[in-house]
Design goal:
The protein is of the alpha/beta class. It folds into two domains: 154 residues, ATPase, nucleotide binding domain (Nucleotidyltransferase, domain 5, 2-Layer Sandwich); 170 residues, Nucleotidyltransferase, domain 5 (2-Layer Sandwich), CATH 3.30.420. The strands form two sheets. The chain has a six-stranded mixed beta sheet, sandwiched between helices. The chain has a five-stranded mixed beta sheet with strand order 3-2-1-4-5, sandwiched between helices. Strand 9, helix 9 and strand 10 form a beta-alpha-beta unit. 53% of the residues are buried.
Length: 359
Amino acid sequence: MSLVLGLETSCDETSAAVVDAGRRVLSSIVASQVAVHSLYGGVVPELASRRHLEALLPVVDQALRQARVAAVDLDAVAVTVGPGLAGALVVGLAAASALAMAWDRPLVPVNHLEAHVYAGFLGPNGADAPPLVALVVSGGHTSLAELTSHVSFRLLGETRDDAAGEAFDKVARHLGLGYPGGPIIDKLAAEGDPEAVPFPRPLLDTGALDFSFSGLKTAVLYYARDAARRGGALNLPDVAASFQAAVVDVLVEKAFQAVERTGVRRLAVVGGVAANRGLRRTLTARAEAEGLDLVLPGPEFCTDNAAMVAGLGHFLLEAGAAGDGEPLRACPSLALGGGRRKRGRGRGEAAGPARAERA
């Protein structure tokens, strides 16, 4: 038995969770800020930080009570160090550091993107062990990686500009649909024709495993602008369905290309966009047709949560990657595998706890 308390404050969810042995979720508490930020069409960093300050300790208390454990029962505290909003990360780091010190427990720094991968290990239907190919599709990140062994990643591809989640939010905002854009477009797409508008599939035929959704986003904006100039009514369900179909086609095709190239027959699709119903249907159908082991976390573990942080924290603790007593620093630009995330092809020095290489 290994009990880890996880804390997650990278963006606009304040979350705490207790996970046993990296898999069994004893509690998972998430305080959402959607109602606050929807007024502004996106996350306001200063407001997010203030809300984290207000919510974090009550959320921790609720997570411990729901799990029916006390601080003395914990083996470690795990906390997201990046990527994310700098101010929001600092709140979580300060709280986790104080709790670990007060309770005399190891403090484990966790990469938020790698934690998304470990959402695929949670619960009875989670993956049993590496290796696996992981498609991480969250609000600000789209990456493909091979988890070669626990806490060891091989980066296969990443976004060159807008991530899939960013594209959903920006398209929804431009069309006046509200925030967050992903769930709204997913719901609207169910009423539309995915073949109504021939939107482009960026980088689909290049052979590269990188992603680019900026051009697709712009194509939708131009289509809406041209429709307005013509004075015609814009069929929002058709636009939503066609846009979503383009995103799904790219994500699914590149994920299965990665599976073919690595020879790994297990695919985990994680992150907030992994809750998209159109994406889940397409992935499930293709995986069944090709006899592939597909890992899809429950929707509650796709969006940001602390259970995935605690889950990865367990395996990092086993690997000896707990903090050395030095103060942890927020790493807002941390990439999957530990480097700094940059627009374009650049790479920074390794800064995270996991081991990684570029394919």
